[in-house]
Amino acid sequence: MTPPAILRRLIPDPFILALLVTLLVATLLPARGQAAVMVGWLSTAAVLLLFFFHGAKLARETVFAALLHWRLHAVILGSTFVMFPLLAMAVSRAFPALMPQPLWIGILFLAALPSTVQSSIAFVSMARGNVPAAIASASASQLLGVLVTPPLISLMAGAHGAQVSLSQIGSVMMLILAPFVAGHLLRPWIGGWVQRHKPAIAITDRAAILIAVYSAFSAAVIEGVWSRVPPATFGVLVAICGAMLAFALIFTHLAGRLLGFSREDEITILFCGTKKSLVQGVPMARVLFAGPDLGLILLPIMVFHQMQLMVCAWIARRYGERKDDV
Questions:
Q1: pLDDT of residue 326
Q2: How much is the mean pLDDT over the chain?
Q3: DSSP code of 292?
Q4: Is the whole-model pTM more than 0.70?
Q5: What secondary structure does DSSP assign to 180-208, as a single string?
Q6: Mean pLDDT over residues 205-230, rounded?
Q7: Which residue from 70, 81, 87, 139 could staple onto 62, CB 3.0 to 4.6 Å apart?
Q8: CA-to-CA distance for 124 and 59, rounded, in angstroms?
């Protein structure tokens, strides 16, 4: 196998590299003073645009389709919004001394996030699973995440000694729900334009996340984030994220098997029920956890995001190859 092919297998999404470069730039050249204010405003504007287009892209039929295969979607949403939070709470309570509190809050926040859309559908397609069900489930998860994640993380963080106020939850709703609803209501008029310009909008989505990450980590670097996360602590974080991903993969695999789903539905449950959305996580975190701890709180979702892409890309390829042999 050639070196480029090996690299593509290890890093399935160039966005991972872009994210790492953004962290490096924020570490070496953090935005300060007026520049930080301007980056913050740019980040907010980009997030508003991101969720406006998310609303415009969401076809109402995909949400209604979720109702037709309710058992499958109940398992996926149960994994996303019940299993993950319970797992994170159990681990954080069992090993509180392993990491600083902001990193544990980040683990809880990661657990409360909805599933992804693009990568879930891409992996289900690669593994030859039930793609229409994946589209419906991922869309429903994103929609529910806007409503469920803020109060869920408020409940979990409060149990862990952190405070998320009602005003912060309201700010998240305004930042995410309002443009999302506006985009969806305008879908009959702009849906065709959005569909024709999907590649450009995908670039806008990723640019919004990179800007938000740069803004958050600039402030975190100025506050000394890397001095608060020595290599040993970072290693513990990676191990915890890896263990959570492994548990989620085993849980969804067994759930699909034991509940008697078809092979295609098993694949859909596996890939849709184990993802966590960086796209929704970063803008939510900027509102809910504004302050010097934001960079630490974002670290778990960024570690988990890269891990889930690399591991699930490998699993999806194995499923696809095995399907050919059947």
A1: 40
A2: 84
A3: T
A4: yes
A5: HHHHHHTHHHHHHHHHHTHHHHHHHHHHH
A6: 83
A7: 139
A8: 19
